[in-house]
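Shipment paperwork, digital attachment
Item: protein structure file
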Amino acid sequence: MIRSVLKRQLARYGALALGFGLSAQPLSPQSAIGRALRPPNAHLGAEFFRIVGVRELRDGRVLVADAGDRRVVVVEFERNTITAISREGRGPGEYASIAPLYALGGDSTLMSDPANGRWLLFHTDRVARTVAPDDPAVRASQGGVRGADERGIAIVTTPPGLRGGTQLFGKEDSNAVLQVTRASGTIDTIARLRMAPLILQSELDKSGRPTSLSVVNPPLAAGEEPILFPDGWVAVARLGPYRIDWRSADGRWIRGGPLPFVEQPVDAREREAYLARRARSSGTQPAAPADDSWPKTIPPFLSRPLLPAPDGTLLILRTPTADHPGNRYDQVDRSGRLVAWVELPAAERLAGIGARSAYVIVTDEDGLQHLKRHPWP
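Attachment content:
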């Protein structure tokens, strides 16, 4: 089954590579060439503050989740309009927080609402259902949803256990990836991930519930990352070595080979470049971290770097460096091979990919975000 799926996927790569102006043959690290996207065919006039999710609908409209402005909107590029969906609140169909958008079957979309402790299910441009906090899938998702599929399955990551006081987590620690069947509430552990280094400070009441919680992520902190595709395949970006492992819809694992990556030391120049990137993205100058909080080398990717493409390939946002400040996305097939990569300027990044288009966030000098649409592939 896996072999036949991979054969169908590889048949698509010729067309994908030609869309980028690349060779139709599978690409080796030496022959792969970074390419820019084709010119945009639409720009949206609206401003956003922190886009965390983009979901293309079948009719070409687009759902956009803006965590900075705490809103979900539906966008029509041809008319240059945005329309709000529901509103902030705690009633049925309302939301108190904004999270990434995950495609389900048809034109349905899932968004978690951690502040309300529940999920929202959208059908096209409306909230069709609120999934209550006592739902087994919602209870299991305290660590964060990392994808949903057309079969009614979601994957979530487990949060660190709180003991109170200050807790330090590093690469020796791990968390679990849980597969949750939404209808039955069945939960299975399918993988474990190396955690990104972090510092947790918490205070607990007598029942063990947190009364205060703060999270500090050291600079350039990287952990392993999962994502679930709509067709039921799971991709896991691994560290040591940098690679992509795949889990098929029927539960079989495919271990990817090492991907091209050369470790670079985190020297003074790289530290300055990192702080400058943070300043551009936030619009404010961050405080310089303590000298002992920096890693020794630059990791291949940082948090939430994975984007599923509609042909079944995965795009991984690589960590920018002082010499390569742009945003490069490695494109990896379901055998774990690098087949292409896409280059974007430092002020631009991919927000999502649909059947028709790639959607790109452009951040201006004030930290405001704008959305444009490019043909895909």
